[in-house]
Amino acid sequence: MAWNEPGGNNNDPWKNKGGKDQGPPDLDEVFKNIMAKFGKFGGGKGGSAPSGKSFGGIGLSVILGIIVAVWVLSGFYTIREAERGVVLRFGEFSHFVEPGLRWKPTFIDSIVPVDVQTVRSMASSGSMLTEDENVVRVEMEVQYRILEPYKYSFAVTVPEESLSQAFDSAIRYVVGHSKMDAVLTSGREVARQNVRDELQTIIESYDMGLAIVDMNFKDARPPEEVKASFDDAIAAQEDEQRFINEADAYAREIEPRARGQVNRMAQEAQAYKERVTLEAQGEIARFEELLPQYKAAPEVTRSRIYIETLEEVYSNTSKILVDTKGTGNMMYLPLDKILERQSGSNVPANIRSTLEGLRNQDSDGVNDNSTVTSRSNSRTGRN
């Protein structure tokens, strides 16, 4: 049977708990009892009201102290060496902070750390139309660094996206004003520099606080359908440039050698000129010395000149002894060959002395006239 069923039964658990007729607990009394118990720990007596008020003041102070401590501790932060901190006070820019351990009032200041030393990179690629209406695929990469942290953070909504769009626009502008052959071959450096200048102009107008460090032209290639033909054309241009470089190297090698030969020939010609001039002057001086002697004794001077001339001529020829007597058989002895061989052969002393005497007589010109006469007589007899 239920405890609240009509019939006079009163089984209410709240009123009959412990055998006493009680109602539901009073919340005010519960809180009073709790505060009284805590008041004992705070120095109060019993459960009186003053003790509760004392505990409430101390608890509030403790809570406020904890809140202040948490607020102070939460304000410490660290800025790394490569970063600069942008301080916003109630959402408005206040100042910059340098690297190190810093403190800020929480809920008043907010910090935006920005890396200003790292060099970042961004790539861009795509198919583009050139000035001569050809399609080319270009890949480039830009390297940049942040100069002004506040402008980089708040000048534009998303700085990376703005830079990417500006980069794409600069590439398409430069490629659209260039020939396809220039972009694929020799004009890459010019295109790279033009893209850098155009991108620098765009980001300066945005005032993004960025600086372009470098620009890399990674690749440029034609569409796949005509890639083989363009590869052949590029290879031909490379061969042409290689041949030009080889010709320049050959010219640089030959030119100094030719100049050296020219200088050597000029010096030899000058030496020959001086030698001939000096020889002519010597001949003139010699004839001038002979002229007085010739005037004094013409026959003697003529004969002496004749003999000296024959001596000079025969000194460079072979000496031959011809026997013009006998039965008509011509016998000749090569005197120079015999003298060359006598050192290695057993020639008797008397024969050797005779050969030496003949050689000395012939070299001194003592018997030059007789020798010439005998030779002329022998030739006449043979004839």
TrEMBL record:
Entry keyword annotation includes Membrane: yes
Matching CDD domains: SPFH_HflK
Residue stretches of biased makeup (Low complexity): 369-383
Any one Gene Ontology molecular-function term assigned to this protein's record: peptidase activity
Subcellular location as annotated: Membrane
Region (Disordered): 1-26, 357-383
Highest taxon, organism lineage: Bacteria
Membrane-spanning segments: 58-79
Domain Band: 74-234
Cellular component, GO, one term: membrane
UniProt keyword annotations, A-Z: Hydrolase, Membrane, Protease, Transmembrane, Transmembrane helix
Single Gene Ontology BP annotation: proteolysis
Major subcellular location class: membrane
Subunit structure of this chain's protein: HflC and HflK may interact to form a multimeric complex.
Function description: HflC and HflK could encode or regulate a protease.
Protein name: Protein HflK
Organism of provenance: Paraglaciecola hydrolytica
Taxonomic classification: Bacteria, Pseudomonadati, Pseudomonadota, Gammaproteobacteria, Alteromonadales
